[in-house]
Design brief:
By secondary structure, this protein is of the alpha+beta class. It contains eight helices and eight strands. Strands 1-2-3-4-8 form a five-stranded antiparallel β-sheet. The protein has a three-stranded antiparallel β-sheet with strand order 5-6-7. It starts with a helix and ends with a helix.
């Protein structure tokens, strides 16, 4: 279901990789749906309540964990969050950072995208800086690690940081490369309600009321 933000963004150019949280949401939603379906097929009259609960669980999981994503479009970047979509045109983009959520700075404001994120541990590790003694401390007795072990640990420490750095640079460059003569109308950020997830939450609430009443 398209809204004003999606319409303003234009055709999609690049979609960033899904986060681990989104994959987790897909897995648990699929498991819940499969379990509810199996129980209903085995005993159609005995597990209606569980099927209703499973439907509510899947809908909420989709809204909270699966739907959010961030993508580059022809006119700028589109941030699809739980219930609202935000389109930030390329000329308006000032910079972008990825902390525990993606943050795009534009028009003197900060816009959040939940589709790209980093763990709190990763953010804290970056702020603390490198820890020279970490590799040796990981080995029994504090022995000196081999070259291969050092390389593996270094990769573990950097995994996740490389891709989010690419996302930050990619979105920031959209603003740098946009024409500086763009009209004010071309810099307008569009925030719009997303009706599909709102409808999903309404149905989920109805399911919960059915179970309670």
């Amino acid at each position: 279901m398209r809204n004003a933000a999606v319409e303003a963004a234009g055709p999609r150019v690049e979609k960033f990789s899904v986060s681990g949280g989104r994959w987790f949401g897909i897995v648990i939603a699929a498991l819940a749906a499969a379990l509810a379906l199996i129980l209903v097929v085995q005993d159609p009259s005995g597990d209606v309540g569980f099927a209703v609960f499973g439907a509510a669980f899947v809908l909420v999981t989709w809204v909270v964990m699966i739907r959010p994503d961030v993508s580059v479009h022809e006119q700028g970047v589109l941030l699809r969050n739980m219930m609202r979509d935000t389109f930030v045109p390329s000329p308006a983009i000032e910079r972008c950072i990825v902390a525990q959520s993606l943050q795009v700075f534009a028009c003197g404001r900060r816009f959040y995208g939940l589709g790209v994120s980093r763990s709190a541990r990763s953010v804290m590790r970056e702020r603390a800086g490198p820890r020279p003694g970490l590799l040796a401390a990981r080995l029994p007795g504090g022995s000196e690690p081999s070259h291969q072990t050092r390389h593996r640990f270094a990769n573990e420490e950097q995994t996740g940081g490389t891709y989010v750095a690419y996302v930050e640079e990619r979105i920031t460059n959209l603003g740098r490369e946009a024409k500086t003569t763009a009209e004010d109308a071309d810099r307008k950020v569009v925030v719009a309600w997303a009706w599909a997830p709102i409808a999903a939450l309404v149905v989920a609430a109805a399911c919960v009321l059915y179970l309670v009443l």
